[in-house]
Amino acid sequence: MRSARARSTPTPQGIPRPEGQIVAEAFDAVDIIRTKRDRGALSTEQIDWLIDAYTRGYVEDPQMAALAMAILLNGMERREIHDLTMAMIASGERMDFSSLDAPTVDKHSTGGVGDKITLPLMPLVAAFGAAVPQLSGRGLGHTGGTLDKLESIPGWRAELTNDEMLEQLRTVGGVVCAAGTGLAPADKRLYALRDITGTVEAIPLIASSIMSKKIAEGTGALVLDVKFGSGAFMQEFERARELALTMVELGRDAGVETRALLTTMDVPLGLAIGNANEVRESVEVLAGGGPADVVELTVALAREMLDAVGKGDADVEAALADGRAMDVWRRFVVAQGGDPDAPLPVARETHTVVAEADGVLARQEALPFGIAAWRLGAGRARASDPVVHAAGIDLHVKPGDAVRKGDPLWTISADDATRIPRALEALEGAWELAAPGTAVPVPPIVRERIA
Ligand code: URA
User: What are the residue boundaries of the Pyrimidine nucleoside phosphorylase C-terminal domain, all occurrences included (predicted)?
Assistant: First the structure.
C-alpha cells in the first residue's frame, strides 16, 4: 500500500534534497516493514526507494532495524536479494577497470582466525598477468583485518585514490587498499546498524552486503572463500553453502564470473594469529615455505581465480617456489610506501604454554584462539581503537601433532603484560591433548567447490 504522501513515481536514486523542501515520497517505510513482517515479498520499486530513502536519511535507523529483523526471520526471495544488491550498488560509485589490458579478478573471504591468505594470494595471482584489485577492511572482533596486518609493515599505507589504484594495477598487477567511502554507502550504514541489532546473520543481508561492494568495485571475476565451522561467521556447513550459492548467483546475474570454495574454519589457519606475525608467515609462503594448510588454501584459491580469467593452466606452485610471486609482493609493498626489508614489530612480553604430559594435540578451537589474540591487542573492540601490531599468538603445534612433556604448544605475545592472563583465560578448555598414539583426523580444507 502507498502512503498518504505518495503521489508520484519512485524518487530518483541518490538525488540530495535541498533542506526544508517537501518531497513526495513514493512509499512508506512502515508499509514495507509490515509487508516483510507478514512474509510478503517487496517489489523492485519498494526496494529501490527504501535504499535510496535510507541513504538520504528519510528512512530512519529504527525503521531499517525493524526491517532487517523481519528479513532475518522471514527471508527474501532470490529476486528481492538481487534488487537489494543492485539498489545498494546504486547508492554509491562504481569503479571501472576496463582501461586495463589485463583481466581483473578478486577474492573475498568471509573471515576466520589466522586468515592471512590475501597476502600471499594477491601477488601469486598477479604473477600470472591477472590484475587483482583487492579492497579490504580492518578487523573488528576476533577475526583480523587484512589492512591491520599489512600496516605492520613500516611505511605501508592503505589509503589510495582511485587513480593510484588503477596505476598500481597497471604497474604492479595487484593492490590491497581500503575501500573508499563512496562504494555502496547504503551498505556501510546498514552493516553498522545490523551489528548492533542482532541482524548480522541474515543470509539475504550478508549476501547483498558482500556482493554489492564486490560488484561496485568493478572486478571481472570473483572467487569467494566461504568458511564454515566453529571459528567462522557461519558455523553450519549447510548455511555457509546457501550463502555461497546465493552470492554466486548474484555475481553471475551482474555479469561477474563468480565461483566459491567452501572451506573449514574449525582450527586457526596456519601457525600465526595476529598482525606482524601473519605478515611473517605470508612471506614464508611467498618464499616457497610456510605451513601446509596456508599453502593448500592459497594454491586452491589462486587456481580458481586464474581459471576464472582463462588462465587455468598456470603452475601456481612453481611461482611460489621460484620467487615470481615474491617479486610481485616486494613491488606491491614498495608501491604502497612500505619497506619489504624493514624488521617487523616484535612484542615486549611473551608467555609460552607447554605440554604437561606426552600426547597428541586432538583439538585446537579457532574461536577462542581468535578471542585470545584479540585480548592481547591484535584486534579491536571499537572501530576507532588502534591495534597492537606485534601482539598475537604463534602456534608450535597443530591437531594431529605429537608432543612430549615440556614441549612448547604456543607462545602468546603482547606489549602489555597485564593482557596475558585474560588471553590465557580465553584458551581454557579450547584445546585438548589425547593419549600418545591417538589418531586425529585432519580434514581437507576445501570441502566443496561451487562453479
Ligand atoms: N561482511 C560484509 O561485508 N557484510 C556482511 O554482512 C557480513 C560480512
Answer: 360-434
